[in-house]
DNA sequence: CCATGAATAT
DNA sequence: AATATTCATG
């Protein structure tokens, strides 16, 4: 059961109601430094930035553009508070966090922000301040040599920045810090009558993996970037379309943030390794750079001595972008495993393993061992086996399981049978550019003899 | 506690 | 639809 933040904070602030859909509501608590000057001006808020306001369209239009395309989708989308929210965004862990509570939380924060603007009352801005402070600290810590997205929020990054700017490698750190700060402050705001929020976490493992602040941050970052895009063109970041799947909102600037993170990851070499694979993981349901199978497999090995690069949680299923944080001992903490794609090659191996083992022994674990594919899990096999068996039951032989390459659309006679590729090609959405900044996946993977590294 | 497989979720 | 995750069961 989700903690009723609305009620609690209303109690504290005496907030009545109806900050609800005020477009400014979501903006305020995120820190005025993140406000586009236009918005700040429009609402009489202090504009802390130095970025010259873009040529001003008629006010109405401005709000329309800002709130229509930016604020609402970004914030509301990030909150997943409304019907249009992405189905992929919600995680089982979020289950108990009622959307009304999410919205209420925003409302409350908005209220706090407004109070803060009017009369610097510590208590009321505690959440925002704490979060901001923590964010700054985190940013400083993880990107000491350069400015972070937070420390210089008004600096419009260049295109190259999105790829190479260390700030984005710290994006998650910042977000995590935000997340932590928010939950922590929410938890410790007891004096004001707040009880510790019992945000539902079905796993019960990470009590303070509070998605809300993460989402807020994402929205904030998206705003910031959108705002930066003023000078670049349409007001849409050029990267928005590269990873349409991340938040399942291709048009949402929230995707930009994800793209930035993903780009940062790409810069570290993930997603472009040239090696052969029977199967492959792809980071998104709908799109994204191809992740090299073996690289991933390696990445999953906790003990690996690879650079502690942000193996960004470029996975939309990721419960929290903090998932890939590193524990004190340097070992990687739970990284969400990307979705496996059963390529024809992989399926072949699967099938031959099944046949070889025979009906009796063809159980997931055995099959997995027989296949001897690095990184392949029992769950992977079990799931595929389930489908395989179903497929058989319904008349067809298992080999008819349609494990085509994900960029192949084979319907009717429209197209010739796809040649079996030596390497799996991962989904490339129709409109998606190859990869942001050229660092992402390409289809240029090179066969190297056909065997995935034997595992172990 | 672990593996399995069906059911269910994403 | 494909794959992942959950859950009851052995």
TrEMBL record:
Name of the protein in its database record = Two-component response regulator ARR2
- Top-rank taxon of the source lineage equals Eukaryota
- Composition bias type Basic and acidic residues, residue spans: 396-419
InterPro entries registered for this protein in UniProt: Homeodomain-like_sf, LUX/BOA-like, Myb_dom, Myb_dom_plants, SANT/Myb
Residue stretches of biased makeup (Low complexity): 431-441
Q: Which GO terms describe its cellular component?
A: nucleus
Family matches, as PANTHER family = HOMEODOMAIN-LIKE SUPERFAMILY PROTEIN, HOMEODOMAIN-LIKE SUPERFAMILY PROTEIN-RELATED
Extract one GO molecular function annotation from the record: DNA binding
Gene3D superfamilies linked to this entry: Homeodomain-like
Q: Which UniProt keywords apply?
A: Nucleus, Transcription, Transcription regulation
* Gene source species: Tetrabaena socialis
Q: Does the keyword Nucleus apply?
A: yes
């Amino acid at each position: 059961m989700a903690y009723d933040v609305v009620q609690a904070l209303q109690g504290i602030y005496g907030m009545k109601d109806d900050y609800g859909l005020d477009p400014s509501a979501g903006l305020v608590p995120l820190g005025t430094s993140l406000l586009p000057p236009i918005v700040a001006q429009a609402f009489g808020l202090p504009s802390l930035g130095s970025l010259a306001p873009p040529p001003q369209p008629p006010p109405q239009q401005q709000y329309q553009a800002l709130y229509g395309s930016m604020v609402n989708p970004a914030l509301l989308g990030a909150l997943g508070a409304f019907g249009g929210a992405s189905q992929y965004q919600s995680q089982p862990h979020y289950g108990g966090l009622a959307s009304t509570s999410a919205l209420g939380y925003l409302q409350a924060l908005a209220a706090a922000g407004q109070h803060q603007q009017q009369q610097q009352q510590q208590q009321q801005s505690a959440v925002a301040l704490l979060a901001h402070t923590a964010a700054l600290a985190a940013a400083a810590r993880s990107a000491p040599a350069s400015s972070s997205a937070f420390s210089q929020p008004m600096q419009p990054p260049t295109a190259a920045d999105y790829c190479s700017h260390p700030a984005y490698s710290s994006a998650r750190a910042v977000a995590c810090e935000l997340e932590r700060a928010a939950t922590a402050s929410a938890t410790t705001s007891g004096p004001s009558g707040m009880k510790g929020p019992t945000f539902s976490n079905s796993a019960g493992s990470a009590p303070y993996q509070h998605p809300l602040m993460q989402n807020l941050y994402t929205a904030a970052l998206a705003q910031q970037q959108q705002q930066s895009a003023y000078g670049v063109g349409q007001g849409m970041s050029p990267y928005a379309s590269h990873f349409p799947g991340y938040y399942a909102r291709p048009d949402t600037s929230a995707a930009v943030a994800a793209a930035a993170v993903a780009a940062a990851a790409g810069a570290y070499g993930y997603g472009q390794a040239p090696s052969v694979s029977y199967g492959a993981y792809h980071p998104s349901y709908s799109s994204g750079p191809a992740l090299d199978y073996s690289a991933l497999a390696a990445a999953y090995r906790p003990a690996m001595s690879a650079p502690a690069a942000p193996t960004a949680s470029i996975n939309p299923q990721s419960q929290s972008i903090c998932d890939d944080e590193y524990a004190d001992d340097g070992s990687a903490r739970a990284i969400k495993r990307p979705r496996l794609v059963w390529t024809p090659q992989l399926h072949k191996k699967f099938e031959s393993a099944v046949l070889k083992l025979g009906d009796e022994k063809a159980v997931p674990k055995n099959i997995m061992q027989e296949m001897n594919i690095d990184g392949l899990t029992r769950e992977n096999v079990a799931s595929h086996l389930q489908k395989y068996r179903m497929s058989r039951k319904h008349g067809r032989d298992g080999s008819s399981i349609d494990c085509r390459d994900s960029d192949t659309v084979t319907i009717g006679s429209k197209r010739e049978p796809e040649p079996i590729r030596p390497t799996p090609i991962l989904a490339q959405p129709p409109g998606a550019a190859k990869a942001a900044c050229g660092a992402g996946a390409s289809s240029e993977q090179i066969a190297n003899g056909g065997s995935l590294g034997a595992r172990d």
